[in-house]
Amino acid sequence: MVETQYTTISRLCLHPKNYQLPNDLPRRYGFPPYKGGPMHWADNIVGLDNILAGLKKYGKERTELVSKNKNYRPVSYWEPSKLLEECVSKGKSLTQVWKEREKASMSKM
Question: Can you give the pLDDT at residue 20?
C-alpha cells in the first residue's frame, strides 16, 4: 500500500502546473478528506525525504526484479519526480516550493 502511495505522490508532483497549491489536488487516492489529501500526507506526516528514499529503494528492487525476468515490463513509475527531488534537496515542503514558483511567475508579469 505504501509503495503505491509513494508513486501517487511522485506522479502528482510531476505535473504541478495543474494545481496552484497542494491543497488544490483531488482528495481521492484512498485519503479521507479529514486527513488533508495526498500532499498533506506527503508533506506533514510521512515526509518528502522518506518518500524519496522509498521510491529509490522500491525502484531499485523492481529494477533488479525486471533484470532477472525478461517477462516483466520496465517500471519507470518508481523514478522520483524532479519537483520531489528539488523539495528534498532544499529541505522545503511542496507548498513552500509551489508558493516560491508562483511568486517568481507573478514577478515576471
Answer: 53
Task: For residue 100, give the H/E element and its range.
Answer: helix 94-107
| Residue tagged 500500500 (cell numbers) | 1
From residue 60, alpha-carbon distances to 11, 90, 100 in Å are 18, 24, 32
* Average confidence (pLDDT) over 48-52: 91
**For residues 51 and 79, what is the distance between their CA atoms, to the nearest angstrom?**
12
Q: What is the pLDDT of residue 13?
A: 62
- Check if CATH label 1.10.1040.10 holds for domain 2-107: yes
The residue whose grid cell reads 487516492 is 29
The one-letter amino acid code at 60 reads: K
- HSE on the CB side for 33, CA within 13 Å? 1
Rounded CA separation 73/59 (Å): 13
**Contact of 38 with 5, CB cutoff 8 Å:** yes
**Radius of gyration for the alpha carbons in the chain, expressed in angstroms and rounded:** 15
